Amino acid sequence: MSQMPQQAALPKCPSCAEPLEPGDLFCGACGYDLSLVPAPPGDQPTLAMTGAADVDWPAPEPPGPDSAEPRTHRATDVPGTDSGGAPLPGPESGGVRLDRPAEPEEYALQAPDPRAESATAAPVCVACRAGRVDGDGYCENCGHAQPRERDHMERESGPLAAVSDRGLRHHRNEDAFAVAHTALPDGAPASVAVVCDGVSSATRPDEASMAASRAASDSLLAALPRGTHPQQAMHEAIVTAAQAVDALAGEPDEAREHSPHQNAPACTLVASVVTSGLLVVGWVGDSRAYWVPDDRSAAPARLTEDDSWAAQMVAAGLMNEAEAYADERAHAITGWLGADAYELEPHTASFKPDRAGVVVVCTDGLWNYAEAAEELARIVPQDAAERPLHAARVLVGHALDGGGHDNVTVAVVPFPAPAPGAGSA
Predict the structure, then answer these.
(1) Does the pLDDT value for residue 402 go beyond 90?
(2) 34 vs 18, 20, 42, CA distance in Å?
(3) Fewest CB atoms within 10 Å of the CB: 44, 277, 346, 359?
(4) Could you report the per-residue pLDDT of 404-422, keeping only the tens digit for each?
(5) Residue 56 contacts residue 46 (beta carbons within 8 Å)
(6) What pLDDT does 25 receive?
(7) Considering only CA atoms, which of 371, 376, 403 is closest in space to residue 392?
(8) Maximum Cα interatomic distance, the chain, rounded to a whole number of Å
(9) Are 119 and 112 a contacting pair, CB within 8 Å?
């Protein structure tokens, strides 16, 4: 028969801690079955590893003169053997090392990627160079308003270039421009420049000028390669620009009720198309185009006539030009692009210059400081045809040096249009 396993005498009941007598099978206090208590594991003898008794441990060295304790040997000081008795590789053989080098108390952190930081960091103030710029464009440290993208714009397109600046008195730039170059059906080059001046007394003049410049440029770039005559293409471009500005006035009736005093967005426009033998200009308003020959002994010329009160007085013979432009009503425009314009009357003119030169297309922010063609020609650098961007910068700088009372925008277009690949220097 099977027997219960012999249990070692327990001093106390594992259930209620009542003292037990030797030979008890059950607790006298709680009746706990003492046979359920597992037998304690027997002590297992320590087994010797094969060959362990043959290890020749070096004797400890005697204490040195500077040390009170003998040097302790490390495990790596003793050559080991594998289970077959072959010697194990030492530390110098490239095997596993047990003497790991000391680890530094601190690990150096990897430097942050400056590209990731610059992509997420807020821009730094241009005034104090310390504060961050908030979402509204103001410094969180000094409160300085930061320059906006349109405050100063420069662009080159093949042989022509343009520059626009907010000026020194206005809080924003309401001018806009577009410069581009294309080819006629016969492969001859053509340069396109459009300059627009937002009417400050109207609402959203900056949007009007931008919409008009883009629409006119796109229209010209689409029509000229199809073979449309440049003067006809100019007329169509002005009509297209007017429609783009008119569309900005399509506000909900509720918006008009809240702001009944606001005029529809409006702007002026002047543009030029230059080919290898033809110069075409078109305009509405008082932005202008000038002809400046490379040979400064030849006479420069103004190519446009203002749609303004002063121009009307001169045309009617009621005032001479000096008297008209001295009047405070001189710059009141009589033609513009916008939904509330009296009537759209695009002006176009074509010329065939007999010599090389440049066309200067500009807003009144420039010609207020150099109104006569002769005066403007004296400012235009002699190498304007080779360096149109530099020339445009010089002309804008002239306006700023004169006071910068208005936004100023200038495009410089060399005539004749150079062949493809012969861009500005």
Answers:
(1) yes
(2) 12, 10, 19
(3) 44
(4) 999 999 999 999 998 775 5
(5) no
(6) 75
(7) 376
(8) 144
(9) no
pLDDT at residue 349, rounded to an integer: 97
User: pLDDT by residue (tens digit) across 156-214?
Assistant: 999 999 999 999 988 899 999 999 999 999 999 999 999 999 999 999 999 999 999 99
Higher-confidence residue of 210 and 70: namely 210
Enumerate long-range contacts of 7-14, CB under 8 Å, 24 or more apart: 7/34, 7/35, 7/37, 7/39, 8/39, 8/40, 10/34, 10/37
208 vs 266: CA distance, rounded Å: 6
Of residues 327, 354, 372, 178, the one with CA closest to residue 267: 178
